[in-house]
Amino acid sequence: MGKILEIKNLTKEFKEFTAVKDVSFFVEEGGFFSILGPSGCGKTTLLRMISGFIKESSGEILIKGESMSGIPPEKRPVNIVFQSLALFPMMNVRENVAFGLKRQKLSKQEVDERVKDMLGRVSLHGFEKKKVTELSGGQRQRVAIARSLVMKPSILLLDEPLGALDRKLREHMKIELKLLQKEIGTTFIYITHDQSEALVMSDKVAVMNKGRFEQIDTPRNLYKNPKTAFVAGFVGESNRFELTDYSDHKLTTENGWKVEKPNLDFTPKVLYIRPEALIIEPTDDIADLFKFEVVIKTILFDGSNTKVSAIVTSSKDELLISLPQNAKFEDLKEGDKVQVGVNYNDLKCYKE
Question: Do residues 203 and 285 both lie within one domain?
Fold first, then answer.
């Protein structure tokens, strides 16, 4: 599929600061593209420029190859879902979804057909006459999405739409949104500060920091091969170590831990290691491992996400290690000394 959205050197300057700095990227038609970053990084400003609610300072926005310069929000082939949802509480579900269609002065028959079809697609058939105040958080979410999608936008923009939901419902809605996007085929551009949302739902993710994109990649590559220290620290859990030296193919942490890392062609300043990359009591048949001893400090039980906090015996460095879910380590306890191994490729180093 071709490009449905293309952003060229987009910048937005306010009096006090520059919110978006020379950002360029494209989104393929029918894709699920997420922009992931901390609060204040510029992602909502970027979304509002795409939708037309904020005018760019410089750069270009193209939708289906057509420049959006000077095109007002209501004339752009996009629709937006906000975290607040902005549903009309005095209207029932059908009236909320039909609102935009009626403003287009479509026939009653076409309005009825499109509303019925869309409510079926978002699993709300039979809810037509319910007030939105009578719905659960997830149901209200689906009404807001249906109200946007029924307008047949080329692009649906979603600005942290799950932020107000509780954790369990948010987990459920992540799956629902992904399936809905695949079924309907509308291009989704999703703004979030929640890495799990971005990784689970997206075809491509852009990590944004201080107004710029640090990396655009598939969720898997973003997690496995972060290109910058910011991405390594922001996406997923990581153990971070400040480095003081790199010589004789060994990294030295601030606390004096010597970590072997051959063949670096630069002097790194920071080291990241994922908790799941650390192997407790590795067997001899696993090749290319750097091995060291730790003392178990505490066990952090969290079901399948259980981790142990451990101290490297040759220094005071502390690290988190994911605990495998098997009987072999059921008796692990505080104070135990164990050997740990990590593949050299899982030692991620950056200049920062």
Answer: no
Same domain as 219, residue 253: no
At CA 326, angle to CA 322 and CA 329, rounded to 5? 70
CB 92 within 8 A of CB 130: yes
Q: What is the rounded CA–CA span in Å between residue 248 and residue 118?
A: 63
Kindly report, residue by residue over 142-195, the tens digit of the pLDDT.
888 888 888 889 999 998 887 767 778 788 888 888 888 888 889 999 999 999
At residue 317 the predicted structure's pLDDT band, cuts being 50, 70 and 90, is very high
The first and second tokens of residue 116, run together, are 């019925």
Pair 266, 146 in one domain: no
pTM score, two decimals?
0.89
Residue 86 has pLDDT above 90, yes or no: no
Burial (CB < 10 A; 0-12, 13-18, 19+), residue 55, is exposed
**Residue where a domain stops, chosen among 233, 268, 297:** 233
* CATH code for the domain in which residue 215 is found: 3.40.50.300
Which of 166, 201, 233 is the last residue in one of the domains?
233
- Distance in angstroms (rounded) separating the CA atoms of residues 7 and 69: 12
The answer on 215 and 129 residing in a single domain is yes
Look at residue 3 and give its three-state secondary structure: strand
Mean residue pLDDT across the chain: 91
Residue 136 near residue 116, CB atoms below 8 Å: no
